[in-house]
Specification:
The protein is mainly beta. The protein has no helices and eleven strands.
């Protein structure tokens, strides 16, 4: 069983930055593709960024140039650095680990507001 725990969310003003972290239990992290998703009120969950076990990354058009996904396999942790935040980035952010099966964290709230 894999457990994922996100942290780093909070309230930030437009134009500000946050760094989200997601720590995974177990020994499969380094072999897994990791992803960040988000879900805003009344909207479907959407993929924000992914990073493969080899470090290849992909981003949603809405966050390209502003968000950066990275991973530290020694710490079983994936990060999402979010810069130039906008009110429309407000959502609950989830991390997902994929290795045949998908595992999800409980989410962390990000609110961008003045």
């Amino acid at each position: 069983q894999v457990h994922l725990v996100e942290s780093g969310g909070g309230l930030v003003q437009p134009g500000g930055s946050l760094r989200l972290s997601c720590v995974a239990s177990g020994s499969i992290f380094s072999f897994s593709t990791m992803a960040w998703y988000r879900q805003a009120p009344g909207k479907e969950r959407e993929q924000v960024a992914t990073i493969t076990s080899r470090g290849s990354t992909n981003y949603a058009d809405s966050v390209k140039g502003r968000f950066t996904i990275s991973r530290d396999n020694a710490k079983n942790t994936v990060y999402l650095q979010m810069n130039s935040l906008k009110p429309e980035d407000t959502a609950v952010y989830y991390c997902r680990l994929t290795t045949g099966l998908n595992y999800w964290g409980q989410g962390t709230q990000v609110t961008v507001s003045s």
